[in-house]
Specification:
- The protein is mostly beta strands.
- The protein has one helix and six strands.
- A hairpin with a 2-residue loop joins strand 1 and strand 2.
- The radius of gyration is 13 Å and the shape is globular.
Length: 85
């Protein structure tokens, strides 16, 4: 499940762990970035996964976005979501 809080231009998104995933420091939260272009989401995906781990590869989704999950070198999980128009 996930939630989103918005105030002006600031948007904070929260989500819990995936089913069956053990909760450990670093995966107990995930942070979501919403880039504005294909180039930006690809750059973020490449940089975050460079010394980390790709949890779900960058791909088009059923909800009309390009999306990926990456765990960075510090163990923090990032969700990248480019909403298509």
């Amino acid at each position: 499940m996930h939630a989103q809080l918005k105030k002006g231009d600031l948007s904070i998104m929260f989500s819990d762990t995936f089913p069956g995933q053990e909760v450990v420091v670093g995966n107990n939260i995930s942070l979501t970035l919403e880039p504005e272009s294909d180039e930006e989401i690809q750059r973020l995906y490449d940089e975050l996964s460079k010394h980390g781990k790709q949890l779900s590869e960058l791909q088009d989704t059923f909800w009309g976005a390009k999306y990926a999950r990456v765990q960075d070198r510090f163990g923090i999980i990032w969700e990248l979501n480019l909403q298509k128009s």
